[in-house]
Design goal:
The protein contains 3 helices and 8 strands. By secondary structure, the chain is α+β, with helices and mostly antiparallel strands. The strands form 2 sheets. A 5-stranded antiparallel β-sheet has the order 4-3-2-1-5, covered by helices on one side. It is globular.
Amino acid sequence: MTESAQVDLWNIESAATCGALITVRWDGREACLSLDAPETGLSAEARGRDLFDALQQLRRQLEPQGWYPLCNGARVDCYPSGMARDMGGARSIYALAIGQAGRPALVGLFEPAPPEKVATVADQDAFYQRWLASRSRYQRWLASRSRRGPRGAGGRSAEARPRDAPEEP
């Protein structure tokens, strides 16, 4: 399958923006992204195990020049699940929020994002690790509460959440 996505690029140093065309090739095993931004003369190509991985590889080429794609795949708080990677090549990713309950919202990888939400690949990976750790702390807390039975310490019901409990993801 081959398709294209129109994505704006933003330069962190000058705050300039320009249009770019990303050509997407995905065969179910490997993704290839080709970027062409005629206004700036930028062009790049990257491969990865899925679309998100290929986009991260592409971003690693653009970051040293100060350019960031203004799409959800470059947001610091967006990351794909394993299932999204396996089933759809990470075409849809989750908008993650530390401390937010429930399933995160799904967003399109190449849908537009504002400049204040995009970050480096390293910052995005670090945010994802913090989000995973926050969920682990909350899951351990829930497990410890369920072992206590229907009444918690001090006679509180199991639903009562003490102030020192980790934030619910």
